[in-house]
From TrEMBL:
GO BP annotations listed: osmosensory signaling via phosphorelay pathway
Principal subcellular localisation of the protein: membrane
Keyword entries, A-Z: ATP-binding, Coiled coil, Kinase, Membrane, Nucleotide-binding, Phosphoprotein, Transferase, Transmembrane, Transmembrane helix, Two-component regulatory system
Membrane-spanning intervals of the chain: 12-34, 162-182
Protein's recorded name: histidine kinase
Compartment list: Membrane
Length: 479
């Protein structure tokens, strides 16, 4: 994967360089051809053109050539001179010529005079023709020069091809070197990222070293994702284990009453005529009790699912929580299993009215109280206390210039001085799939605390549990 990404990057770079090189070569060649054909950068007033058209300033008087005034002005303006020759190469007229200039030329000397600077290094000579006479135009200017080139078209094109091939090879080598350096630097983090994603897919959550540069944020986010996925994986494994334990417990709780119902039903079926009325009443009572237990179990399953999915409509009504808890305490003390237990009710407020679902809230609070009574010794003291909590320290709230009544919360505390809950179990107490193992009494479905918590949350309340082993447990409800 690493070299695959590098090859793709190198291929892209080399392709771009080759295309750019070919386009530049074609463009350069086209410009050279166009310039050669049209000479588009030649100026009309160049010295070459001036020399070739100087004949317009030459006139004949008595069959002798002379330069008119306009031509003389041009020569003075350009600091040039002119020498006119006949067909024999003899001088017949001269204007502004230097003193050392020859007056008679052979054909080879004329060629030499035109091709090379025969007078001095600063003077360039141009040649022209008019009315059977030839003339030299000399210009003394270091900025003007003439260079004679001889070339072979075949060799030129061959050399150009070699040069282009050389440039192409050099460009490709440069592109490969640069591409390899930058490609390795750019693709190495990508390779590490691909490996990291592969590890995540294989559920191996390992942090990667964060490099500096453009990929820094990507690596940081990948590490955060790895940490979160690791947490989710552990939580899921934990929930799966709890779910399996809960299913095992519920299955056991279902099998036990079913076994009783099935056993007593078979007994009544086989020995119905031999049973006394007292035995028949005892057996039917057991069957009825076990069937009610199974019904309660199924109701708990249905209730916890509806509460968790917010599909249970609550029947809200105004309820005085002080009266509500006092009546609940009296009802508990009048219940035969708990009539002799130590249950105290403390009300530090006179009245606290809230809109609640009376039936569900009673079930939640009773569940907390039952847990305190059932999972502790018979001499445990359970205290039910109600207080008002003022978040603003009793000060009045102000809206503009209008003072409003102080905002307070009703706090319900259910505390006991029993054996407490081990710290390792505290985080699992309210889980739906948790069934307490810190007590010998394992009766129940393991849904009671989860249902109670969901009921409090459905009332927009807050729930807090604190416990210390061998000192007791305290549950605080804030409405």
């Amino acid at each position: 994967m690493k070299w695959k990404l590098t090859r793709r990057f190198l291929g892209s770079v080399v392709t771009i360089v080759v295309i750019v090189g070919l386009v530049n070569a074609i463009l350069l060649f086209s410009l050279l051809v166009f310039r050669t054909m049209y000479n588009f950068d030649a100026e009309e007033e160049s010295m070459e053109n001036f020399s070739r058209t100087f004949s317009q300033y030459v006139e004949l008087q008595d069959d002798k050539p002379i330069v008119n005034e306009k031509g003389l002005e041009k020569l003075q303006e350009l600091k040039a001179w002119v020498q006119i020759l006949n067909k024999k190469g003899e001088q017949v007229a001269a204007f502004y010529t230097p003193s050392n200039l020859k007056t008679e030329y052979s054909p080879i000397e004329i060629v030499q005079m035109y091709k090379y600077k025969e007078i001095d290094t600063e003077t360039t000579v141009f040649i022209g023709e008019t009315d059977g006479f030839s003339y030299f135009v000399g210009v003394k200017d270091q900025g003007i020069g003439r260079y004679v080139l001889t070339y072979d078209y075949a060799k030129i094109f061959k050399n150009i091809n070699i040069l282009l091939l050389l440039f192409l090879i050099v460009d490709i080598i440069i592109a490969l070197v640069i591409g390899l350096l930058f490609g390795k630097r750019l693709t190495t983090p990508l390779y590490i990222l691909v490996e990291g994603i592969q590890q995540l897919r294989e559920r191996r959550f390992k942090k990667m070293a964060i490099p500096k540069g453009v990929y820094e944020d990507v690596f940081r986010n990948m590490n955060e994702l790895s940490v979160k996925l690791d947490q989710y994986e552990k939580e899921r494994d934990h929930l799966d284990r709890m779910r399996e334990e809960w299913i095992s417990n519920v299955s056991h709780d279902m099998k036990t009453p079913l076994a009783s119902i099935h056993g007593y039903a078979e007994l009544m079926k086989d020995s119905g005529t031999d049973l006394t009325p007292q035995e028949l009443h005892e057996y039917t009572t057991i069957i009825n009790r076990q069937s009610l237990y199974m019904k309660d179990l199924l109701d708990d399953l249905n209730l916890t699912m509806r509460l968790r999915n917010q599909q249970l409509p609550l029947q809200f009504e105004d309820v005085d929580i002080v009266v509500f808890l006092r009546e609940m305490t009296i009802e508990l003390l009048n219940d035969s299993p708990f009539g002799e237990r130590q249950i105290e009710f403390q009300a530090n407020v006179d009245k606290a009215v809230h809109k609640v679902d009376k039936k569900l809230l009673k079930r939640a609070i009773l569940n907390f109280i039952y847990n305190a009574l059932v999972h502790n010794d018979e001499n445990v003291l359970v205290t039910i206390r109600i207080d008002n909590i003022y978040p603003h320290c009793g000060q009045e709230q102000k809206s503009g210039n209008i003072s409003t009544a102080p905002v307070f919360h009703t706090q319900i505390t259910i505390a006991d001085n029993g054996r407490g809950i081990p710290s390792k179990d505290l985080e699992q107490v309210f889980e739906r799939y948790y069934r307490g193992t810190n007590t010998a009494n394992t009766h129940g479905t393991g849904l009671g605390m989860a249902i109670a918590r969901d009921i409090i949350l459905a009332h927009n309340g807050k729930l807090d549990l604190t416990s210390v082993e061998n000192k007791g447990t305290s549950i605080t409800i804030l409405l």
